[in-house]
Hints:
Elements: E1 13-15, E2 28-29, E3 43-56, E4 59-66, E5 69-75, H1 82-89, E6 96-104, E7 119-129, H2 139-142, H3 146-154, H4 164-169, H5 171-174, H6 178-200, E8 204-205, E9 211-212, E10 224-227, E11 230-234, H7 239-247, E12 252-260, E13 273-282, H8 288-308, H9 310-319, E14 332-335, H10 336-345, H11 358-372, E15 376-380, E16 403-408, E17 411-419, H12 423-432, H13 441-445, E18 454-460, H14 461-468
Parallel strand pairs: 1-7, 2-3, 5-7, 8-12, 14-15
Antiparallel strand pairs: 3-4, 3-6, 4-5, 6-7, 9-11, 10-11, 12-13, 13-18, 15-16, 16-17, 17-18
Helix pairs in contact: 6-8, 6-9, 6-14
The chain binds adenosine-5'-triphosphate (ATP).
Amino acid sequence: MASGEEYPEEENYGDVSSVGALQRAGYAWADVAALEPAAAGRAVRVRGAAQEVRAKGRVVFLVLRQGSATVQCVVAGADGDVGITLFAAGLSRESVVDVAGVVALPRVPVRSTTQQLVEIQVQKLHCISRSVPKLPISVDDAARSEEDVAGAKARGEQLVHVGQDNRLDYRVIDLRTPANQAIFTIESEVEYIFRQVLRSEGFIGIHTPKLISGSSEGGAAVFKLDYNGQPACLAQSPQLHKQMAVCGGFQRVFEVGPVFRAEDSNTHRHLCEFTGLDVEMAIKDHYFEVCDVVDRLFVAIFDHLNKNCVKELEAIQRQYPFKPLKYLQTTLRIDYDEGIRMLKEAGVHVEPMGDLSTQAEKKLGELVRDKYGTEFYMLCRYPSAVRPFYTMPCSDDPLFSYSFDAFVRGEEIISGAQRVHVPEQLTRQAEARGIDVNTIATYLDSFRYGAAAHGGFGAGLERVVMLFCDLGNIRKTSLFPRDPRRLKP
Length: 489
Ligand code: ATP
């Protein structure tokens, strides 16, 4: 059929490139996930991807997928009409098709689809978009768990294992697997609860610039660019501007936005572009007011996922098995000093007053889990020397700071602190770190016009989901990851 042409009602099958003209009198659009046995006998129209096309004698079984939901469609060709069955048999996998037919109850439950108790007896079948006959990776292969591949190997069989790079090269196909559909649904839920809880606590959402003149966090991990002849950077965090928003009179702000880090080493937990979940707030007495927000917020996020995303978590578990996260309803806080003591008692070498290595953090996560029964906790009061220049030193001992990190399964997901709001002290602390204060002059000036005591924190969305689901690689929780080597697709 020519492109754009209206589809004649009497034609029961064919290719059609203009969906706008399609009419199917008597067939109501249905969602695959919502079909149920009570709908038996009803005429429905369903659009989805042809996940599987299997001819058996004169019948073609078509598995149609919408999101993560699948249903078996049976193309038998009424009155010996072989045209529609030949047409169905010739469909390439992943082609998008329009099925019009009648909901029916299969004689035995269909084991290979999510809809096991209903199927569709096809009367009309139209192809909206044909996929190439040979896909670079198949959804079935991409959806297979490593355990299945290993199990088959042990039995002397060979099942295709799609490697990470290959998946990411063909991400639009890879994203169609049930696990990936679930991962990004969960990510969206985390973002939703983050906004919802903060809004309910009087925070407002803001958007800070990503093109800035100096680096936000210092150090070398910054993407430099030319801004109409001026040197500029992509923001490594919304840090400076979210604090400036508090200086601008907003008591409580949050931001969900892109963060750019020119990471130079490939790790399982660093991306060059990630989604920052940031908070900044005026505080009254103590930086624990910030920790209290972290506590309520993240417990609400974890509770929500466990309660309302059961299907998604199961879909992820099927491909990437993991144990549910252990966490307390009131999040544990321990001091850095106590953490160091626990590590030393366990025989782990730690630099005095130094930052914890990745291995030490992981080990401390295990020790905390064994002692306190939680895999989510906050480590507070870090040495000032290992925190950014804008961190407030403790008033009783300036070698330590009013700062904290939060960990999930022994890996950092959040970093937070009270900030210095006294301009002279802030300038001194920046200079002591070798920062050229001219590059952050407008930030420093913001504190000269009256500034509230304040604090805040930043988390990485992809890291939260990676660690909640114990996925082991942050590329799995980034839709189109940007790492030191990957800039495509
Ligand atoms: P790390 O020690 O893991 O490199 P960091 O101390 O550089 O992290 P912060 O600058 O404190 O991290 O950023 C706050 C949060 O942002 C981190 O706890 C993490 O969740 C997230 N994050 C930081 N860097 C990255 C990155 N390169 N990729 C993904 N998420 C990141």
